[in-house]
C-alpha cells in the first residue's frame, strides 16, 4: 500500500506520460489520495478543479467511498448516488473525460482501470428575452451559451422520441460540442448525411461560435448571401424541425443554425405565424418592398441625375436643381459620402455601450446631416433618401441578411455611375444569376421562385392560413410530405334565438 501511494505521488512517474507531464504545469490540475478504513484500500481522485463542482465530489462521492464497503471499481456504481459513472480501461479517453468535467477515480488494486464520475460545474447565464428577433407577442425565451440548456429548451417543445440529437466534437484544440437535431421519419436522410459529413470533415483548430460553422460548411463560402439561417428563438427551431429541416446547436453559442434554407426565409419573421394571416402577409410585403427600396433608391437617384434628366418630372426637377444648386460634388460622391457616414454611425452605435451608442446614433445623425446640408456638401433631397434607405434596411428580421443588404448598395451605386439605369439592370442580372446558381446543402436557394413551385408559395411572399399549409416544403424531400390530414369542419348550428 505504501509503495503504491508513494509511486503515485512521485512526479518523475508522471513525466513518463505526455498528457500528465503537460497537465502538471497547470495549477488547476489536482490529484488527491484518500483511504477507506473498512477494507484498507487507498484510492485517488484526479480532476481539473476549474471544471468540476467540488461540492458534488465532497458531498456525493467522497463520504460514500470512505465509509461504505467496496473492493473493485465495479462496486462504485452501486454505492455512489450519481447516475453518470463510467468504468474504462482505455487510457486514451482520460484527457477527454478530465476536460469534460469528470473526476477520474483509481484504486491501488486496479491500476489499469479507471472510473469516471460526472461532476461538471455549470456556469451559465439565466434565460433572457430575444434581443435580435424580438416579438411583441409570443414566447420570450432565447438561447444561452450552454448547449445542454439550449437542447432542453428544444426538447420540451418537441417531447417525442423521434427527435434525434447527434453529438459531434469539432476543433482540434477547442473540442467544441456540436449537436445535430432532426426528426426521424420526417427529415430527408440525405440532408442529414450531408450536414453530418461536412461537420465531421472540418479541419480547424478552434470553433467558438456557430458563425464558424456557417463559413466552413456552406455550399458557396465566397457568397455574400448566408446559406444557413441562424436564430436565437427555440420556438422557431421547433417549428422548422417539424417542417423537416435540420438544426445545428454549438456549445458556447446563443444561436442555432437551420438548414437547408431559402432566400425568402431570411425576410420572414417568426412573429408572422403569431398574427392573423392577413396581417402577416401585409407585413411581409412591406418588408420585401423595404428591402428593394433600400438597395435601389440611391443608385436610381445617381443614375437619374447623371444620365436620365428627361425621366424627372418638371416640378420635381425644379426641387432637385434648387437643392443641388450649391453642391460642388457629383451625385456619386455625394451619395458615397452620405452612405459611408451612415455606415460609420451604425458601427459606432453597435460597438459602443448600449446607452452611449443610442445617443451617438441619434445625435450624430442629426448633427452631421444638418451640418453637411448647410455646408453645401450634399443636398437635402439626397439626405432624406439616404435616411429612408437606412431605415428600410432595418426591416430585415435576420441580422446576417441585413449586413448583406447594406453591402449590396455599393456595387449598385458603382454600376449606376458607370452606365446609369442600364448599369442597375446589369448589376441586378448578375445578382440574380448568382442567386439562381446558389444552393443550400444541395437544395435551390431561390426556391420557390426558381425553380417555381406553386405549392411552396403558400408560405413564401405571403402566408396563407394554417389549414392551407397541409404539405411540407417540396424542396426538402421529406419522408412524410403531409403535415396533417384534411378534415371537413362540421356545420355550426345557429342559436335558437337567431
From TrEMBL:
Origin superkingdom: Bacteria
Any one of the GO CC terms: plasma membrane
The keyword Transmembrane helix is annotated on this UniProt entry: yes
Name of the molecule in the record: Spore germination protein
InterPro entries per record: Spore_Ger (IPR004995), UPF0353/GerABKA_families (IPR050768)
Biological source species: Bacillus methanolicus PB1
Family, as annotated: Belongs to the GerABKA family.
Transmembrane segments: 285-307, 381-400, 412-436
Subcellular location: Cell membrane; Membrane
Keywords: Membrane, Transmembrane, Transmembrane helix
Swiss-Prot/TrEMBL GO biological process terms: spore germination
Membrane topology, record value: Multi-pass membrane protein
Pfam families found in the cross-reference section: GerA
